[in-house]
Design goal:
Peptidase_M4/M1_CTD_sf; single chain; Peptidase M1 membrane alanine aminopeptidase domain-containing protein; four-stranded mixed beta sheet; 15% strand; 7 strands; 11 helices; alpha+beta
């Protein structure tokens, strides 16, 4: 996070100077921050202090009002309980159709951070997931993000992080499971293994959790529809051009469709094995 904020070149210079100055000697945490400040010309000690002197990390909630984005933060707790006292200095970047904007440091004592996003149909906070926090969006913003996910206008890091975040928030009770599943539908045409690995791990949790529910067959049918295109692309047959990762990809997709009782996959598995 710090390396991205101050730039890799300056980060490496600061680390080199710090290690050289304190070689065979004792150092304190603040000495590292001061070395990075000297190399970058940026004041980072106060920001770093909020991350090293308290537990946890924040979940940032984003709402849109016209061409403004409003951000609030609180400590993320996986059991859904509240801690509104802990605050962090957060480096904020965001991606829109116009590109990436570096909005600087959101100071811990500022309750609401405001961003300008004129004409932006969608916005993804924390571009490329370089800072250590989760982001929750208003319902309309989650829906708007489905478009750049489905067209892959967002890169792999952003697509995977959005998917991961949606299900983490759902398990914590901060986003409905229905909204998380609705968002996952945007990945039906994705071709990236990391996306499907993340999706399979998240959905497998619910396959185990909800298997005794009366509506479970509908959930299985959803998975069958979601995985249909990627299964058709991978097929059962290995190819000479397959990479090791393709083998894992095919295995995971077949496993998910088997758990979802996909008729074609179950029949093919029975015929083969």
């Amino acid at each position: 996070m710090l390396a991205n904020f101050i730039g890799l070149d300056k980060f490496y210079v600061g680390m080199h100077n710090y290690l050289t100055q304190y070689a065979y000697n004792n150092a304190k945490t603040v000495d590292l921050w001061q070395a990075l400040e000297a190399a970058s010309g940026l004041k980072i000690t106060a920001m770093a202090h909020t991350w090293t002197t308290q537990m946890g990390f924040p979940v940032v909630t984003v709402t849109k009002n016209g061409e403004k984005l409003w951000l609030t933060q609180e400590r993320f707790l996986s059991n859904g309980t509240k801690d509104t006292e802990s605050k962090w200095d957060v480096p904020v970047t965001f991606r829109t159709p116009a590109g990436v904007t570096n909005a600087g440091i959101w100071k811990a004592d500022v309750a609401t951070f405001e961003l300008d996003a004129p004409g932006a149909e969608w916005a993804k906070i924390n571009a490329d997931q370089t800072a250590f926090f989760l982001t929750n969006y208003s319902s309309d913003m989650w829906k708007a993000l489905q478009a750049p996910v489905s067209t892959q206008a967002l890169g792999t890091l952003d697509r995977v992080s959005l998917l991961h975040t949606a299900f983490v928030l759902a398990r914590a009770g901060l986003l409905s499971v229905g909204d998380a599943l609705d968002f996952s539908g945007a990945y039906a045409q994705d071709t990236e293994y990391l996306v499907w690995k993340e999706l399979s791990e998240s959905l497998a949790t619910y396959l185990r959790l909800f298997k005794h529910e009366t509506w479970f067959p509908k959930f299985q049918a959803y998975i069958q529809r979601l995985y249909k295109a990627v299964m058709a692309d991978l097929t059962w047959e290995t190819r000479s051009s397959d990479l090791d990762i393709t083998t894992n990809f095919r295995r995971d997709v077949i496993a998910m469709l088997s758990w979802a009782k996909d008729p074609a996959v179950v029949a093919e598995a029975a015929a083969r094995f």
